[in-house]
Amino acid sequence: MASMTRAAPTAENGAKMSTRAKWAVAGIIAGSSIAGLLGAGSSALAAYFARRVITPSEREADQEVLAVVRGDHGLQVILAATPDSIVDGVFSLYFAGGTGFARIGRIVSYSPAERTVQREVEEVYSGDLAKARRGWWSGAVYDSPAVLGLDSEEVQIDVEGGQAPAWLIPSGAGKPAKVWAIMVHGRGATRVEGLRAVRSARDLGLDSLLVSYRNDGLAPSAPDRRYGLGSTEWRDVDAAIEYALAHGAHEVVLFGWSMGGAICLQTADLSHHRHVIRAMVLDAPVIDWVNVLAHHAQLNRIPYAVGRYGQLMLGHPLGRRLTGLAAPVDLKAMDWDTRAVELRTPTLVIHSVDDEYVPYEPSASLAEKNPDMVTFEPFEGARHTKEWNVDPQKWERLVHSWLAPRLTPRVGPASA
């Protein structure tokens, strides 16, 4: 049998191999570049998403104001129909960059074909509504305690970095109450949000302290000028509890809206005054930030992996270079759906099942997992933190019937 020998490479074969090798290397480089670009793009999007969550910003004027007319019973405003503006109830419209503020009442007419809605104007607190072209919708319908006919005192609470202003509204009993209501507004809101609940607190004999906290535009800003999503803000609520105790309170009830609910939960968990927190009333609270962040990533069509990457940036020490946070945010520690059995403060949760901003499911789950401590009361058609606005009688009835029995004097060894 003839022996097999390998042919010596020719110049032509060598040239062909070299060409194939070049194309292979070029393909690898191109693929790596595309992957790098995609990775960089995903990282940038994740960082942008994370920063938006924790950075205080001005409200977007996304409500169009079409006209102001005079009706049979006063001014009426014609608005572009939006998911918010077509909900019946009492709301408010901020305009002129937030310097204008009007209370908007019932729907007079609604034209789906023209996409307009006409509503009564109950009160214009500031600004010229007739000149308004855009604004934003809100559930905060009063601009001060005086509008409710209530006496109040502007007080200053010592917090990190200075003093935070608060409204102290007495119960009307003629002396400081033994139990105070401390009201904690949500992200992007101010203390006016809590004015809706003051009547309920007064009916129960509570003094009310409507607080401000870091980065809300009234209290001193945090050094990093970033929200802690409750992980840092609770210290300002703890300072408010100290103020209440120093001025006659023996115990407190925490009221919280949206992120204010997350702040209250952290206060009840971490404060050395937690033993004086008699109960909590939480309206559309953030029970689980991971759930809320995933919801917003989906709303903004951000891929799940990118949204998850943004969450990791918030919680990782290295992420602060991209987010601007002074310290990581421990999202696990604020997951009260998982930590449900650890909640030992009686809590009423009011949450609309159509909440477009904070999904209601974790609220319902918290009550299901810890029924001894948590009562869940669903609303419908209220969207985010506007349960009182669509049905104030129901909201106040629920709060009164749930909270009144929990304010009865304690007896036995616990009272000591």
3D structure, described in words:
- The chain is globular, with a radius of gyration of 28 Å.
- The strands form 2 sheets. Strands 7-8-10-9-11-12-13-14 form an 8-stranded mixed β-sheet, with helices on both faces. Strands 1-2-5-4-3-6 form a 6-stranded antiparallel barrel.
- It is built from 10 helices and 14 strands.
- Helix 5 (289-299) packs across helix 6 (304-315).
- The relative contact order is 0.11.
- Strand 7 and strand 8 (162-169) form a beta hairpin.
- It folds into 2 domains: 63-138, Beta Barrel (Elongation Factor Tu (Ef-tu), domain 3), CATH 2.40.30; 145-407, 3-Layer(aba) Sandwich (Rossmann fold).
- The protein is of the alpha/beta class and 416 residues long.
Uncertain segments of ≥5 residues (pLDDT<50)?
Answer: 1-17, 19-40
**Alpha carbon gyration radius:** 28 Å
**Total domain units:** 2
Mean pLDDT: 89
CATH superfamily of the largest domain: Alpha/Beta hydrolase fold, catalytic domain
- The CATH topology annotation of the largest domain reads as Rossmann fold
Strand content: 15-25%
Could you give the distance between the termini? 107 Å
Biggest β-sheet: strands ordered side by side in the sheet = 7-8-10-9-11-12-13-14
SS-based class: alpha/beta
InterPro entries: AB_hydrolase_1 (IPR000073), AB_hydrolase_fold (IPR029058)
Keywords: Hydrolase
GO molecular function: hydrolase activity
Protein name: Alpha/beta hydrolase family protein
Which tags fit this structure?
single chain; alpha/beta; Elongation Factor Tu (Ef-tu), domain 3; Rossmann fold
Short description:
This protein has 416 residues and is α/β, with parallel strands linked by helices. The chain has helices at residues 11-54, 198-203, 234-246, 259-270, 289-299, 304-315, 320-323, 361-369, 387-390, 392-403, and strands at 63-71, 74-80, 91-95, 100-111, 116-126, 134-138, 153-159, 162-169, 179-184, 207-210, 251-257, 277-283, 347-352, 374-379. It has two domains: 63-138, Elongation Factor Tu (Ef-tu), domain 3, CATH 2.40.30; 145-407, Rossmann fold (3-Layer(aba) Sandwich).
